[in-house]
Amino acid sequence: MTDRLARLKTVLWALIGVLTPITVLRFADGLGTVTNLSDAAPWGLWVAFDVMAGVALAAGGFVVAATVYIFRLERYRGFVRPAVLTALLGYILVAVGLLYDLGLPWHIWHPIIYPQPHSVLFEVAACVMLYLTVLILEFAPVVLEHPLFDRALFRGAYRWLRKATIPLVIVGIALSSLHQSSLGSLFLITPARLNPLWYSPDIWILYLVSAVALGLMMVLLESVLAGVFYGHRVETRLLTGLGEAAAVVLALYAGFRVWDLGQRDQLGLVTDGSWQSWLFIGELSVSAVIPAALMLFRRVRASVAGLATAASLTVFGMILNRLDACIVVFQRPAGAGYFPSWMEIAVSLGLVAAGVLAFLFAVEHLAVYEGVGAAAPREAPGVAPVAPADAGGVRGLLPLRLTAARRYSMAALGAAALTVVFVPLSGPRPRPTPVQRPRTQHGVVRGAAGSPSHRLVLADAAPPRPAGDSAPVPLLLLAGHRDRMAVLFDHEAHVRRTGGDASCALCHHLDLPLDRASACADCHRDVFDSTATFVHGTHVAALGGDSGCAHCHAPGVAKTYATAAACTDCHRTPAVAHPVIAAPAARWRSAPGYEAAMHGLCVECHEREAREHPGEYPVAMTRCAWCHDVDRGPELRRLLPRVAPGGQGGLAAGTR
Q1: Are both 476 and 597 inside the same structural domain?
Q2: Is residue 418 included in any domain, yes or no?
């Protein structure tokens, strides 16, 4: 092993060491501990780099496979295996990156059994899963060539996979083309959010074309780096062919992007002097214009350093393009910006390090490159053998030899220990979001009450009132923090349907002293966080200060909540007669967040009634849209100013 390669592996193992404690913290304590993500910025570095850029970087697999197997350019066959290996590892890292990014990572398999055929994101998920399967089958023959699999069963599988190469390549090209373009299609629903210099109705074409160019340049770059670190001969003539093909695609990409701006009358934004215009010019120059221009010079095309420079510029520029679209120029509400935390960056670098180590392992032990690792030529008989780049099998990658153990293990352990010093011990506490009490508005019932099509509408929302609407009735406007999913609630109709005053206890399960049917917001005082039902300060004041402690706490016993007297010891009988029955509990310690309480109460009741009375209540009442109707958003938005701390806008309104 060369010193250069050993130093590279040392750095990579150090990055793995940094990744390890952050991984434990992320999956033990959630996203909030290690990321700067929020409801306004749910997509951050892990989507922009690990997924968006990662999928594009892995495009070389289908591009080179098509070049050799479809277009029959046999001289490039030597690039197929490293390109497929890069694609395979890239897609594995995309899946792992999604595990880090998903709030509920154990649900990553749900698209398989809960398909959403009208969702672009579902199409991406399905194609990525299928293409990853295809890549495993495409690369399997390389693994089966290892002497370890010299068995009849594996030889049969090898022959079958070799015969299936062409069908697998065709399926892989189709799947990869679909999801490379669909990643761009995700932005088609955000024309008002994505800067016009990056948005386009044809953005899916831009993402597909840029992925083809990036895939070619990525194969070129990794071939040069493999030659640098393993010392084998670099086929400059073949690399020049890849570079020239990539330059043509890059020129098409740059030209189409400028033409698209002209077609949409947005070309003036390029020269308006804004920071977005300078970013656009720099990104397009680095990713496409400069590399394509470099390929025009014979000395650059014939130079390994020149080819590597052009490829590096394209790789950097295309990664920047994905980061710009997902983060930098994607508009968010004021005060809701996003910049990745150092731990997000460390996770992305750690995943890249793991992928590079896996690539090096495969190169050293499988016939990936001709003349390297398992593909290295044997020494002639009688000549002293020369140790290959990694004579110890897996020991060249895993720290089993004493020298490697001292270098790689110490690098990983030292980096992990240093990381533990800087990671937070616990996640951030959520910001308080006080509940806004319900407001009363007059509304009408539109359509037959109780039917799947009926809805509640503000009385003055759409004058003149259509025939068939009910007379105006008072409605409760439930909007816990006036900035999310507001609901119009017909309280009187619910009382009638559930049995009159005797049914109050179905919802108002606990009243405050001297109160009748206390509002939900009296106890569930925060939208998301739980709040204490028992307010200690109020009781201290009512019982005469510190001298009143004996009313609740026995002498000689630690004064804690667990040892205090039960609430029902004092609050035996309601001071005011009313039909509400207190919840059967000795102590009411805390109330869940307002949102969880309302969902738990309303959704469970709707599901129960629809199940027990199917002829009277429609199944539609169990769905979100029964209460949260986005069509009523414009009517209610004017009534609900953004008053909550950290409000994020985008109110959707509700009915029923």
Answers
A1: yes
A2: yes
Structural domain includes residue 222: no
Residues in the chain, total: 656
Q: Are residues 417 and 534 in the same domain?
A: no
How many Å apart are CA 175 and CA 183, to the nearest integer? 12
Task: Write out the DSSP string of 575-626.
Answer: SS--SPPPPS-S---EE--HHHHHHHHHHHHHHHHHHH-TTTS-GGGGSGGG
For residues 457 and 606, membership in a common domain is answered with yes
Number of structural domains the chain divides into: 2
Residues of the chain predicted below pLDDT 70: 1, 370-405, 426-430, 447-454, 459-470, 480-485, 571-589, 629-656
Residues 538 and 402 in one domain: no
Co-location of 536 and 561 in the same domain: yes
Digit-coded pLDDT (tens) for 138-190: 999 999 999 999 999 999 999 999 999 999 999 999 999 998 999 999 999 88
**CA separation for the pair 530, 593 (Å, rounded):** 5
Pairing of the two strands 487-489 and 531-532: unpaired
Q: What is the mean pLDDT of the chain?
A: 83
The DSSP letter of residue 490 is -
pLDDT (0 to 100) of residue 644: 40
Geometric angle at alpha carbon 626, from 625 and 632, rounded to 5° = 65
Quote the pTM value. Answer: 0.74
458 and 414 in a common domain: no
In the structure encoding, which two tokens stand for residue 600, read together? Answer: 């738990």
Which ranges of 199-329 does DSSP label H, i.e. alpha helix? 203-230, 236-263, 275-284, 290-294, 298-301, 304-323
Extract long-range pairs of 297-301: CB within 8 Å, 24+ residues apart.
Answer: 301/240, 301/243, 301/244
Listed as own residue / partner, the contacts of 367-371 with beta carbons closer than 8 Å and 24 or more positions apart are 367/81, 367/142, 367/145, 368/81, 368/82, 368/85, 368/142, 369/78, 369/81, 369/82, 369/226, 369/230, 369/232, 370/78, 370/232, 371/232, 371/233
CA distance 187 to 180: 13
Residue 224 within any structural domain of the chain? no
pLDDT of amino acid 587: 63
* Contact residues for 37 (Cβ-Cβ < 8 A; gap 6+): 31, 43, 44, 338
User: Both 574 and 535 in a single domain?
Assistant: yes
Task: Yes or no: say if 631 and 461 are a contact pair by the CB < 8 Å rule.
Answer: no
d(CA 396, CA 246): 34
Paired tokens of 151? 């068995």
Tokens in use for 458? 């503000």
Packing angle of the helix pair 304-323, 275-284 (nearest 10 deg) = 140
Domain, as residue range, for 398: 1-29+337-350+364-372+390-423
Q: Which residues contact 179 (CB under 8 A, 6 or more apart)?
A: 55, 123, 124, 127, 128, 131
Do residues 342 and 450 share a domain?
no
In a domain, 489, yes or no: yes
